[in-house]
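Input record, target 12 of the design panel.
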């Protein structure tokens, strides 16, 4: 076969899947030659250069189309630390060009039918269809600038097709009652504690059940990671279903890395049918940090913002991404991750606003060991009126060993274990476990006193037994913590 279709087998996926007419192929070649060197264009066929300050976002190894992931480290990409994060560069240039407002539009996933094709011809075809000629006649413009008419009549319909219709607006949930026990707890205004149980590496569920039953009395909800660090384990959906059957309120994490737009929607509907109402949308760790042999590290199909947009519309509008109606809509309480120290607070606020606009109702942050360091981030979110629109749960963790503390400090972007915490742990010697629990309880109490914080998300990192001790200890210092989740 390959003899008759030379090179077809090695055809890069960004080339069109069907043979295009000669004129369009020539235009595509010209576009590749011009836009490649000028903008680093990858010919995704779904051009966003105007929204991304003329830097091609496809340079991001994850292919994220709606802003940086939490892995940006001092402006560098964690997947390839030799390269600047493409989205950090886009944010910086947008700021210099006063185009930050462009970063707020929820942009659609790639329409792969258009990948590798030219985009200039499409501008001309759309302009013709919408009667572009009229905008050259001043009386037809009715006081509008040519630029704004072009944007409305030509660029917007191309960029935001009918199956997506993303915008820059906040879309409050269209459902009134709480969709889960966690949402009910958060709405009550009480300080909420959630935790995380690591999914097992085996098919047996006895230990998983035991861990879930240990933490249920102390928390309002339990997260189950979805192949964290790109390592396969029992799925988050399966663990969530086990937890729901035991009376817990699970938070199913869905990682964009392991899902495409179809599986995302199927997972959400399926898990919902099994009693899972909380979903945390993540882009997921790159396979680069996982075990060998590595899977495809190229481009994810939908990013976390797009996942939120799709799931919110399934719940609020009762439609799948392709427009099919969902008769019995899923009941969903949607969350997203936040990395308060990954970018400067103003950049973070853009990212967080976009997630909230797309559908995030709660945020779970990565690990924080110094609550006061959150202040500039919280002040910025408050200034921008975002704190009233989202519940924030701050990630905390008991450190089981000094080597774990060093690992987090050195290897995990956006996580810092302060020197004084390191010293307390090393001075503790044999009492390290006790000291670690005391430190975590202190952080919990300090978080409870902070404006804008709705709760804490305790990530035991495999040390689930520590959770009751942390809650008991913190309960001595503050009220309304012990048994936070009982009866929920
Ligand atoms: S993977 Fe994350 S850190 Fe790397 S370029 Fe993409 S958004 Fe930036």
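The sequence produced for target 12 reads:
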């Amino acid at each position: 076969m390959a003899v008759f279709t030379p090179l077809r087998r090695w055809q890069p996926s960004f080339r069109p899947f069907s043979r295009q007419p000669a004129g369009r192929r020539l235009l595509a070649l010209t576009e590749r030659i011009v836009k490649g060197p000028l903008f680093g264009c990858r010919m995704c066929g779904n051009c966003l250069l105007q929204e991304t300050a003329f830097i091609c976002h496809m340079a991001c190894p994850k292919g994220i189309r709606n802003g940086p992931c939490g892995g940006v480290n001092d402006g560098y990409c964690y997947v390839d630390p030799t390269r600047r994060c493409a989205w950090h560069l886009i944010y910086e240039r947008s700021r210099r060009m006063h185009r930050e407002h462009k970063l707020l539009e929820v942009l659609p996933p790639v329409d792969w039918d258009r990948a590798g094709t030219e985009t200039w011809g499409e501008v001309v075809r759309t302009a013709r269809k919408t009667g572009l000629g009229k905008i050259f006649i001043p009386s037809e413009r009715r006081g509008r600038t040519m630029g704004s008419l072009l944007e409305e009549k030509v660029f917007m319909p191309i960029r935001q097709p009918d199956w997506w219709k993303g915008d820059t607006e906040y879309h409050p949930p269209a459902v009134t009652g709480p969709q889960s026990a966690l949402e009910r707890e958060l709405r009550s205004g009480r300080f909420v504690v959630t935790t995380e149980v690591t999914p097992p590496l085996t098919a047996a569920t006895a230990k998983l059940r035991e861990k879930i039953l240990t933490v249920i009395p102390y928390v309002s909800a339990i997260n189950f990671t979805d192949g964290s660090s790109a390592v396969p384990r029992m799925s988050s959906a399966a663990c969530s279903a086990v937890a729901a059957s035991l009376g817990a309120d699970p938070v199913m994490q869905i990682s964009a890395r392991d899902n495409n737009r179809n599986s995302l929607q199927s997972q959400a509907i399926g898990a919902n049918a099994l009693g899972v109402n909380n979903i945390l949308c993540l882009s997921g760790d790159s396979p680069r940090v996982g075990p060998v042999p590595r899977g495809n590290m190229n481009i994810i199909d939908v990013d976390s913002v797009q996942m939120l947009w799709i799931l919110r519309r399934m719940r609020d509008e009762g439609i799948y991404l392709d427009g099919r109606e969902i008769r019995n809509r899923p009941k969903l309480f949607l969350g997203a991750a936040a990395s308060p120290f990954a970018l400067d607070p103003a950049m973070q606020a853009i990212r967080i606003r976009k997630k909230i606009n797309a559908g995030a109702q709660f945020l779970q942050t990565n690990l924080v060991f110094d609550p006061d360091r959150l202040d500039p981030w919280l002040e910025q979110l408050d200034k921008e009126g975002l704190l009233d629109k989202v519940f924030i749960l701050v990630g905390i963790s008991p450190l089981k060993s000094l080597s774990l503390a060093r690992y987090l400090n050195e290897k995990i972007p956006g996580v810092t274990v302060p020197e004084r915490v390191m010293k307390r742990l090393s001075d503790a010697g044999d009492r390290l476990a006790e000291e670690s629990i005391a430190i975590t309880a202190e952080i919990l109490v300090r978080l409870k006193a902070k404006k804008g914080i709705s709760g804490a998300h305790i990530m035991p990192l495999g040390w689930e037994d520590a959770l009751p001790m942390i809650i008991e200890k913190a309960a001595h210092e503050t009220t309304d913590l012990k048994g936070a989740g009982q009866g929920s």
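The radius of gyration is 24 Å.
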